[in-house]
């Protein structure tokens, strides 16, 4: 949807004059693209799904919407904003307070994990118009009947994709169960994977979808073929491509289980965090391997086609065909796994002179010519191997021990803990949990979880490879 330049002026909207005046005093002269596209639907009380990255002006977008409809004289919780981390919740609350300066007596309260529970109970007893919080802590207050959402008119999920990555799916469903069905719901997300679509279908009513394109992104896949001398030089070629592109996540396809183990072992021997995935793995080992790869604490996954079926990796930087696929259709499925989530993907295929006929068949099948490339110089092999950005910690407790993602986040971000922004994906099974944290905070996180308590008890904690 293209917005005329004249309509980028806030005064063109049906906004409370006090909000417009305050925007002018803050130097907000015109709307950003996400504001121009989303605010008319938000002000018309429609449910909205907005795909926009941080820095696009999304916080001001939903803040203006919720403030415009707020009834200040009705001292009840009318709006709930859920955020994945305490840091983001604090930023959002500050932005709402700043935009609300022209309207007197608006009470905004933050409810986040990692801080004392008692004072929050006291604050809730005094009441609020707007609650900004993290799912785990908000759910806790709802279960203990400290928070009442009977008068809620607006629900906002900020960075919804990140909340789902951190394992808050169940908490979100539970929280929604405490609020009226008749409400306005807004969902903001940088990416829009299938799991976001599923939750939107459950909790939203005929939502309007708004998407602001990132001018720096491309959904195309750059595919290049590299001819190698013989089978012995394949692993060397893989190492050169990894060193040249330094992707955070790479999926390497082999045609046999034996090859996947061999390639993963050889890459580990020279320093890469690589894992093999094939049909002989036990389910526990498969789950652990996939968790580490999805968490970005294993950077290279070497897999057979069968084992890779059903992989749900939102952003895969690179695919390498260690061997050409034995079926033409399979090749297309392989390379289609990269270039997702609006990013440009890289696909590299290795072949020998004997396999040239496969390339000819593939080009005829796809009705296109491939790029041919030269492998990077061997000098690159002398460069140090790069490390994945995250580490994964295994906790020996899960749903059966009443452990929830919010408990893990709270334990990590408590006194002398790590910032919530340094926490990655969280997965909780029946008797286990995985949490990813940035590499630089790995030791602190491990110490917090191994020496501290979750749900009032100690759990066995170990750091997985990565």
TrEMBL record:
Keyword ATP-binding: yes
GO annotations of cellular component type: cytosol
DEAD-box RNA helicase Q domain residues: 8-36
UniProt motif Q motif: location: 8-36
Family matches, as InterPro entries: DbpA/CsdA_RNA-bd_dom (IPR005580), DEAD/DEAH_box_helicase_dom (IPR011545), DEAD/DEAH_RhlB (IPR044742), DEAD_box_RNA_helicase (IPR050079), Helicase_ATP-bd (IPR014001), Helicase_C-like (IPR001650), Nucleotide-bd_a/b_plait_sf (IPR012677), P-loop_NTPase (IPR027417)
Residues of the Helicase C-terminal domain: 220-381
CDD domains, A to Z: DEADc, RRM_EcDbpA_like, SF2_C_DEAD
One Pfam family, short name: DbpA
SUPFAM superfamilies per the UniProt record, alphabetical: P-loop containing nucleoside triphosphate hydrolases
Gene3D superfamilies, A to Z: 3.30.70.330, P-loop containing nucleotide triphosphate hydrolases
Residues of the Helicase ATP-binding domain: 39-210
Record protein name field: Putative ATP-dependent RNA helicase DbpA
Lineage: Bacteria, Pseudomonadati, Pseudomonadota, Gammaproteobacteria, Cellvibrionales
